[in-house]
Amino acid sequence: MKTNKLLPIFILVLISMIGGQGCSETEEVQKGTIDFGMNPLIESTLKSADVNLNEIAGALVSITGENGQLVYDKEFLDFYTFGESFVTERLSLDAGHFSLSEFLLLDMDGKIIWATPLENSELAYLVDDPLPMHFRITPNTTTHVRPQVVWVGNHNPGDFGYVSFDVDFVNRFCLGIEFISECRDWYMIGDSTIGPDGSFAPVYPAHLFVLSGDELILETPLFPGYNTIFLPRGYRSYTIVAEDCYMDPCFKKTFKAEELLDFTCRQGQPLLINCSNTPSDIIITPEDVFEPTIKQGVFGRLTISFNDTTNSPGPCYDSISTEECDGYPVVRDLYLYRIAEEDSIYQWIEINNCGVSLIVDLGPDVIVRSNSSGYYQVPLDAGRYLYMVKTSYGYYIDMYLSSRLPGELIIREGELTIQDIVIYPCYWILEPNL
């Protein structure tokens, strides 16, 4: 009888052991991701001619867990820029509650130029939420944290609550890359990745791989326009491989260490990686151009706006950039054709349902590319021009204008023409309800 009484107990223990083993085998740690942006705060006492948001190259972040353990300690994250907005690469974290305990922004030389003050520090009153900033990571989603940052200027680290701003970046150098690509398609509005030129990245963005021999040193996304890449020092040679959004290698070249120094962010021209059929003789607008530096020609900004999804053209179907209609800046090529005064614009182009095409078999007089903030400029002789913006779905010429002919640009002697262009995606024209 004793055996009969013990048997149910034995069976229960056996079942619990099996159940426990099943849970341990199938249980997985749920993970999410986080990225960081910035809300720059420039108080009157902190304003300076040296303030340039486009100098930001990376962030240092420190993150602690619920029990106070340090999860990331001054983790370096690349910053991607589109216009005057920024976002870091993403970090992976287990699901749970965390705190951002340090947030510092660096320039290309590794110097701290912006910082978020800590609680009870002298400058804490400037921001709405001094550090630590608490956040939650949920499984399979990306958390976006946007701390306010204060320009360091002549302030001491102690004013922010930090012991020191000294960061050792002796073993890194910043490589500038100008990436030319046709990978600019919009595929989803929502949790899409926004590239530095303001366009929504394709499902598989272009990638950069850096190797030394068989060792993979770096893998990072590439976006059309100017990219800043931090590479470790100490290697004799670096093999750079670029892969476009179709996962096809389109660039491969090996450099000696000293050769790459010609393309550092502070010296010379960026390394040009051309993964498209675009001709190389393009006037590329410098990154530091935010207002015209020429006396005659054309200056403007290229943006893409998503703020009007109605069936009607709406107030933003115009080239005039306003606060209401100003959208994401984009890196695009502007094709300019000199035409005679008596020529009709429609002798040169054919308008279809989505963009335009050139009727005459002639190359452009000038091609100019906007910088990552969307600004472009090019000196031009006085005269009448047709302009066409190259997009992923063809060419765009502002088809919804009443103030002038679509695609027309007039340059007068000794004058600068301002031409801001708001581009509308193809699917707005074909399917305006999207």
| Amino-to-carboxy terminus distance | 75 Å
Q: What's the domain count?
A: 3
What overall geometry do the principal axes of the alpha carbons give? globular
> Percent range for helical residues?
under 10%
Low-confidence stretches: 9-15, 18-26, 44-49, 185-192, 307-324, 428-434
Main sheet: strands, sense, barrel: 8 strands, mixed
Coarse structural class: mainly beta
Mean pLDDT across every amino acid position: 77
Extended strand count: 31
- Rg value: 27 Å
Known CATH architecture of the largest domain: Sandwich
Q: What is the fold named in CATH at topology level of the largest domain? A: Immunoglobulin-like
What does this protein structure show overall?
It contains four helices and 31 strands. Strands 2, 3, 4, 5, 7, 8, 9 and 11 form an eight-stranded mixed sheet that branches. Strands 19, 22, 25, 27, 28 and 29 form a six-stranded mixed sheet that branches. It is mainly beta.
Short structural summary:
With 434 residues, the protein is mainly beta.
Question: What tags apply to this protein structure?
Answer:
434 residues; mainly beta; Immunoglobulin-like; 4 helices
Topology:
Blueprint: H1 2-26, E1 31-36, E2 39-41, E3 58-64, E4 70-82, E5 85-88, E6 91-94, E7 96-106, E8 112-115, E9 133-137, E10 142-145, E11 148-151, H2 157-160, E12 172-181, E13 206-212, E14 215-222, E15 225-232, E16 237-243, E17 249-256, H3 257-260, E18 271-275, E19 283-284, E20 297-304, E21 328-329, E22 333-339, E23 349-351, E24 356-358, E25 366-369, E26 375-378, E27 383-391, E28 394-396, E29 408-411, E30 416-418, E31 421-423, H4 426-430
Parallel strand pairs: 1-10, 2-11, 12-18, 19-25, 20-30, 20-31
Antiparallel strand pairs: 1-6, 3-4, 3-7, 4-5, 7-8, 7-9, 8-11, 12-15, 13-14, 13-16, 16-17, 20-21, 20-26, 22-25, 22-27, 23-24, 27-28, 27-29
